UniProtKB/TrEMBL annotation:
<dbReference type="InterPro" id="IPR015330">
    <property type="entry name" value="DNA_primase/pol_bifunc_N"/>
</dbReference>
<dbReference type="Pfam" id="PF03090">
    <property type="entry name" value="Replicase"/>
</dbReference>
<dbReference type="InterPro" id="IPR004322">
    <property type="entry name" value="Plasmid_replicase_bac"/>
</dbReference>
<dbReference type="Pfam" id="PF09250">
    <property type="entry name" value="Prim-Pol"/>
</dbReference>
<protein>
    <recommendedName>
        <fullName>DNA primase/polymerase bifunctional N-terminal domain-containing protein</fullName>
    </recommendedName>
</protein>
<feature type="domain" description="DNA primase/polymerase bifunctional N-terminal">
    <location>
        <begin position="38"/>
        <end position="206"/>
    </location>
</feature>
């Protein structure tokens, strides 16, 4: 473990920070961001959810791959914590193990039964929003790894009925604990500092419970961990899992290597995101995901399948009525007859995402989208479906049919008439959206292109975009989608982060003007779909005329500014203000300069007058 990390985790929090945490009264994002920033210098912090209607999701990490923070500190990004809680990633990076008491009565009983003295309480302690303690201990610097341990016990619910509950958790590597300054999702009380004592050595009984294997006997952590010095350990290290999390690598599922079932499984990454319901909230090895989930998330970086959500009864055979090819997979909800039909692609299409957004070919993606658009229309599929997740075809909750067929994009395209570019983008440009998600994305994109030049750093750009989208989500989305209401806060956060980071590099692009030309810079009303061709043609001509006038005015203004700046530059260098010199500096034509000679003379005289007054 690095010396800095160890020393920081042993030192109590500064008095001013403790006072700031314990004096929190209101849900003040700015005050909490200051607190989280200070904590991030001591511990390895991650953003976690503040609220959720589902108990298991409340207090859960927001970002995928968050467990990496247990081994390596990440740079603190304030934007990630707006309206969110903070979590401390336990383990090597923070240098801590945390004893989390869930049921005080059962915990006290465990302490008595095992004859444990109260010395464990003499350490840095956080009081949770539910009034229970978190005891912080030093993460040992030895050859062992320390993971998570849960102790369960029985409580009486009512006469004759008992229930199993967690008595306490011990949180080590690959675990996180809600940080002080956060707010409890149920009690709405803040996590505060109960005892600002130095972080004590972990008691032996705590270590015995959460100790896993030694580095020498197991593959415990990806190499290059900052928590282990190279001269201490020389092993090929992989992530550690609790016994109940260990995947079965050798399980034989009975599928042949060439079967569509095997191809479907093999196309996933080493870690698969999945959920029991539509909310994708877990990440495990593939075998566990295929066994336990009802929904799976496709790999972000590529599309090996084209999936359609048919949100109506008896939809499994809709492809026949539409004279489309037979799907590779048909997944039916037997309760309501709704289905997913899925076409396997012979060649995957690599998709823009945070991992490879600059390293993809745009034409295959556009071709894929055009085919998907045409199939959506033919099948009357749900256009708000984002094609990133799918019903798990191996789940017993659905009836699944497999066919050993795969298609090229060209083969799929041969069954439909592909839309023109005009038709494809008409829905976006006319502000008629397929769902809340595409509406928010396009609103974010329009606002971003219009406002990116007004900002000098990406953080302020993100914050302003977040504020705009948050208000739009609260005020407008419920009006457009009264049966669904506003999107959850984490969706606004993710949209803001993705769109702002996508747009920001384009602000200095020389072709910026062309990039934003179709994003409502003139504020013209969209042309409605239900008007006649003559009316449409008339409106298009009027809009083109307005656009030409707008472009001319903008160009004139830009040229004027360019010329006046050139005059300043020449005067600063003591050079003659001549048409020839102005042409050289601005790159404009002689005729453009001549047409503005009166403006140049007037500006030059005013500058001379200013200089004479100054002298």
């Amino acid at each position: 473990m690095s010396e800095n990390s160890t020393n920081e985790s042993q030192t109590p929090l500064p008095i001013e920070l403790v006072e700031a945490i314990n004096n929190l009264k209101d849900f003040d994002d700015f005050a909490r961001l200051d607190i989280y920033s200070a904590l991030s210098e001591i511990f390895s912090l991650i953003p976690v959810r503040t609220y959720s209607t589902k108990t298991k999701v409340a207090k859960a990490p927001i970002k995928r791959g968050w467990t990496e923070a247990c081994y390596t500190k990440k740079e603190f990004e304030a934007f990630d914590y707006i309206s969110n809680n903070a979590g401390i990633a336990c383990g090597l990076a923070s240098g801590i193990i945390v004893l989390d008491v869930d049921n005080i009565k059962l915990f006290d009983q465990y302490i008595r039964n095992h004859h444990i003295d109260s010395a464990y309480t003499n350490t840095f302690t956080v009081k949770t929003g539910s009034g229970k303690p978190h005891y912080y201990f030093k993460y040992p610097k030895d050859q062992f790894t320390y993971g998570r341990y849960q102790e369960w016990g029985e409580i009486s619910v009512c006469s004759g009925i008992k229930k199993q509950v967690v008595a306490f958790d011990i949180l080590g590597c690959r675990s996180q604990v809600v940080a002080p300054g956060s707010i409890h999702p149920v009690t709405m009380q803040f996590y505060t500092i109960q005892d600002n004592l130095p972080i004590a050595d972990a008691p032996e009984w705590v270590l015995d419970l959460c100790r896993k294997e030694s580095f020498a006997d197991s593959n415990a952590r990806p190499s290059n961990s900052k928590g282990i010095e190279p001269d201490e350990v020389n092993y090929n290290i992989k992530p550690i899992y609790n016994d109940y999390e260990t995947p079965d690598f050798e399980e034989d599922d009975g599928y042949e290597d060439s079967s569509p079932q095997r191809r479907f499984k093999d196309h996933f990454d080493d870690i698969v995101w999945w959920g029991f319901g539509k909310e994708i909230e877990r990440a495990t090895y593939p075998n566990e995901a295929f066994k336990n989930s009802n929904y799976l998330m496709f790999p972000k970086s590529r599309r090996s399948y084209m999936c359609f959500d048919l949100d109506y009864t008896d939809s499994a055979s809709a492809w026949k009525a539409c004279k489309l090819p037979e799907p590779t997979i048909t997944i039916v909800n037997t309760h309501n007859g709704r289905s997913h039909i899925v076409y396997e692609l012979t060649t995957p299409v690599y998709w823009p995402c945070e991992y490879n957004k600059t390293a993809i070919l745009k034409k295959p993606v556009a071709y894929f989208k055009a085919i998907r658009f045409a199939y959506d229309q033919q099948l009357n599929a749900d256009r708000s479906y984002n094609h990133s997740s799918i019903k798990n075809p191996f789940s017993n909750s659905w009836a699944t049919t497999w066919v050993d067929k795969a298609y090229s994009l060209k083969e799929l395209a041969s069954f439909v008439n592909l839309p023109s570019i005009k038709e494809y983008f008409e829905a976006t440009r006319s502000s008629i959206y397929a769902g809340r998600d595409p509406e928010l994305f396009n609103i974010a994109r329009k606002w971003g292109f219009l406002n990116v030049k007004k900002h000098f750093d990406i953080n302020s750009f993100k914050q302003d975009m977040y504020a705009y989208l948050n208000k739009y989500n609260s005020d407008t989305i419920p009006l457009h989608w009264p049966d669904k209401g506003p999107m959850q806060n984490y969706v606004i956060h993710e949209k803001t982060k993705f769109v702002s980071e996508w747009i920001w590099p384009k602000r200095d692009d020389k072709r910026y003007g062309r990039v934003i030309k179709n994003f409502g810079v003139m504020g013209l009303q969209p042309i409605q779909k239900n008007i006649s061709d003559d009316e449409r043609s008339k409106l298009q001509k009027e809009n083109k005329a307005l656009g030409t006038k707008h472009t001319h005015k903008t160009k004139m203004f830009n040229n004027d500014s360019l010329i006046l700046n050139a005059v300043d530059e020449l005067m600063g260098k003591g050079m003659i203000i001549s048409n020839r010199n102005l042409v050289k500096v601005t790159g404009l034509s002689k005729n453009t300069i001549r047409l503005r000679n009166d403006m140049i003379d007037s500006y030059f005289k005013s500058k001379q007058l200013q200089l004479s007054i100054t002298k």
